[in-house]
């Protein structure tokens, strides 16, 4: 008997399906669906930023884009809920714009909820979104899905992995993670949480592939703190650090460094202020790290200034670009000031960043990119091969489903899973239907996947 893909794509009571509409075969705009017993569960709803140097099959050229949600929007009465695993833009960014097409409850931790409420307030979008706050490490039931939220480590407060249990099987969805035994904020990585899953017959582990091409282990946020301290403590002039505004741990590190080196810390950029506001509201900003008003920075002696600025990827409207063009209202950089890039250079942004560096060098401002630095001034929030291997060995799933990566990352992650003894590895892309139970198989391109523009 030939097995056919059910035409209505409705999962039965014995089915457990995984259907990524975004973030599988690419990095960005994560949108995952799980199907069981006539219901769907969405995990994450993020954006991606258009990059003309990274061609995709999509003709959309809007600056901000999301996964095309048509498949699930057409079945919204079957969508039991939406889980947001953490507050990075590639996981949360599209939700305020797409939510009216879903209309169901949203589940997330308090920090992600705070970010979501700020996004909704800033954009003037629908205020009716029911946001249900789940404490980190908590549990909840959403339709036929029972969810255990599991504290993991990443580069933003309250990152959560998920154990999704159904009558047909269990999925361990890692979301974004790394093993950080000494994060600057939040709890250290606890192996026991994941070792416990080994006895639970995990059907599939859906896993972050971002750094699956890199051998070994990622470095801890604390090691990055020490590297940044080494560089900044040797400086006599102004120091500007540019990085990702959501990395509260990194900002806390810079706060401690400012105090230890007799500098005042100021934040330049709305995204940065917004994130720190949310961190404060949720109790993640230590009381002993003062911030000074950006407008006061210009009056300070050069050796007392530590500025954190948005715009590490060369974004033309961000604070760092304005500093590089002497267009910032609060600070004129001078000869011998130092700009540190405490961030990776995201592929495709090379031209923008080299233009930014040329502008800074014209002002005789020195620059240091993380890739050229002898000291560690940036660490990634994603797992290298050593960490992937460990987590597969802890959890011992029957099937590995690598996601959150381009095809090469996904293949590399599958290779690590195979070597770690995971019996089956399913690789695919957006729109593929991964049948996890009862008879595991992949239906390529079961659903039309694509991109849509997000109006900002
Ligand atoms: Zn991500
Ligand atoms: Zn993330």
From TrEMBL:
One GO molecular-function entry: RNA binding
Domain Metallo-beta-lactamase residues, every copy: 28-228
Gene3D superfamilies, alphabetized: Metallo-hydrolase/oxidoreductase, Ribonuclease Z/Hydroxyacylglutathione hydrolase-like
Keyword Hydrolase: yes
Coiled coil: none
Keywords, in A-Z order: Exonuclease, Hydrolase, Metal-binding, Nuclease, RNA-binding, Zinc
Protein name: Ribonuclease J
Species name: Arsukibacterium tuosuense
């Amino acid at each position: 008997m030939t097995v056919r893909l059910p035409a209505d794509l409705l999962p039965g009571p014995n089915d457990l399906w995984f259907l990524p509409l975004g973030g599988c075969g690419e990095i960005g705009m994560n949108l995952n669906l799980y199907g069981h017993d006539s219901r769907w569960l969405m995990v994450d709803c993020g954006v991606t930023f258009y990059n003309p140097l990274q061609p995709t099959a999509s003709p959309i050229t809007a600056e901000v884009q999301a996964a095309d949600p048509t498949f699930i929007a057409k079945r919204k009465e079957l969508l039991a809920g939406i889980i947001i695993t953490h507050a990075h833009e590639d996981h949360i960014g599209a939700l305020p714009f797409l939510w009216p097409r879903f209309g169901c409850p949203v589940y997330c931790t308090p920090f992600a909820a705070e970010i979501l409420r700020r996004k909704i307030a800033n954009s003037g979008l629908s205020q009716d979104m029911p946001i249900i706050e789940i404490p980190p490490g908590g549990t909840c039931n959403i339709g036929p899905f029972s969810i255990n939220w599991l504290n993991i480590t990443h580069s933003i407060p309250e990152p959560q992995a998920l154990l999704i249990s159904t009558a047909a099987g269990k999925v361990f969805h890692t979301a974004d993670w790394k093993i950080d035994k000494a994060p600057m904020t939040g709890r250290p990585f606890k192996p026991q949480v994941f070792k416990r899953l080994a006895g639970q017959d995990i059907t599939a582990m859906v896993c972050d592939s971002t750094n699956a091409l890199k051998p070994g282990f990622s470095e801890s946020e604390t090691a990055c703190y020490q590297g940044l301290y080494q560089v900044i403590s040797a400086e006599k002039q102004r120091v500007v650090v540019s990085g990702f505004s959501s990395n509260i741990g990194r900002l806390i590190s810079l706060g401690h460094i400012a105090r230890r080196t007799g500098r005042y810390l100021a934040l330049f950029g709305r995204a940065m202020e917004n994130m720190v506001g949310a961190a404060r509201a949720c109790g993640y900003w230590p009381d002993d790290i003062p911030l000074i008003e950006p407008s006061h920075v210009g009056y300070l002696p050069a050796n007392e200034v530590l500025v954190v600025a948005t715009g590490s990827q060369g974004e033309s409207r961000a604070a760092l670009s304005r500093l590089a063009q002497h267009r910032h209202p609060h600070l004129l950089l001078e000869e011998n000031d130092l700009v540190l890039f405490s961030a990776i250079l995201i592929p495709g942004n090379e031209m923008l960043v080299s233009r930014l560096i040329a502008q800074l060098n014209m002002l005789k401002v020195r620059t240091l990119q993380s890739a050229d630095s002898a000291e560690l001034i940036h660490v990634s929030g994603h797992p290298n091969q050593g960490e992937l291997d460990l987590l597969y060995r802890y959890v011992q799933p029957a099937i590995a489903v690598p996601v959150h990566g381009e095809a090469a990352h996904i293949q590399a992650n599958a290779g690590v899973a195979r070597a770690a003894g995971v019996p089956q590895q399913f690789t695919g892309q957006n729109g593929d239907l991964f049948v996890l139970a009862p008879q595991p198989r992949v239906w390529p391109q079961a659903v039309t996947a694509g991109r849509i523009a997000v109006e900002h």
